[in-house]
């Protein structure tokens, strides 16, 4: 039963040791412990505040990044459209130039053909004229082979000259 009901002396000495330990802890250890706990609490609060600020800055940076990416995409699309328009313009200019060159070549070919045709016609006329002269010469030689035929032809020319 000693354990269940302690003596007065045991209670006194236990109380005295407890009070003296409480006094010593309050005098020397309590303030540094509370200071350390308060410092740690402050450090945790500062860290949480810093984490919140960092989170907000990250959200702001992300929003700015998204805006920059959106603007970069818009500029890229604009540049691509301008490049496409420029390419189409170059293609149209090249087509027009090629068409113009082809027309020049066709016109030059037509002109060359006309010149060749005129030269061929001229040469043909020259040959026809030469052949006609040869035929006329041969006819005249055969017609005028006798003196009587020559005199009849001369009289016919003279009659035609006097009539005119």
Structural key phrases:
single chain; 164 residues; mainly alpha
Explain this structure to me?
There is one protein chain. The protein is mainly α and 164 residues long. Helix content is 93%, strand content 0%. The longest helix is centred in the middle third of the chain and has 136 residues, at 8-143. It is rod-shaped. The model has no long low-confidence stretch (mean pLDDT 89).
The helicity comes to: over 70%
End-to-end gap: 187 Å
From the helix content, strand content and strand pairing, which structural class follows? mainly alpha
Which H/E pattern describes the elements?
A: HH
In terms of quaternary structure, what is this?
A: single chain
Described by the principal axes of the CA atoms, the overall outline is rod-shaped
Question: Which residues form runs of ≥5 with pLDDT under 50?
Answer: none
Over all CA atoms, what is the radius of gyration?
Answer: 65 Å
Strand content bin: under 5%
Instruction: Summarize the biggest pleated sheet.
Output: none
Q: How many structural domains in the coordinates? A: 1
Number of helices: 2
Mean pLDDT: 89
Count the E strands.
Answer: 0
Give the secondary structure arrangement, pairings included:
Layout: H1 8-143, H2 147-163
Please provide a brief summary of the model.
The protein is an all-alpha fold. It has 2 helices and no strands. Helix content is 93%, strand content 0%.
């Amino acid at each position: 039963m000693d354990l269940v009901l302690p003596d007065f002396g045991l209670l006194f000495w236990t109380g005295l040791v407890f009070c003296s330990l409480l006094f010593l802890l309050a005098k020397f250890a309590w303030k540094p412990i509370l200071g350390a706990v308060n410092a740690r609490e402050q450090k945790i609060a500062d860290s949480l505040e810093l984490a919140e600020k960092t989170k907000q800055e990250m959200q702001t940076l992300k929003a700015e990044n998204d805006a920059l990416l959106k603007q970069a995409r818009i500029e890229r699309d604009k540049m691509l459209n301008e490049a496409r328009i420029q390419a189409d313009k170059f293609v149209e200019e090249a087509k027009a130039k090629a068409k113009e060159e082809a027309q020049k070549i066709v016109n030059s070919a037509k002109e060359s053909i006309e010149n060749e045709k005129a030269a061929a016609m001229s040469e043909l006329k020259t040959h026809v004229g030469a052949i006609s002269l040869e035929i006329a010469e041969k006819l005249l030689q055969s017609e005028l082979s006798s003196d009587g035929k020559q005199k009849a032809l001369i009289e016919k020319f003279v009659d035609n000259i006097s009539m005119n």
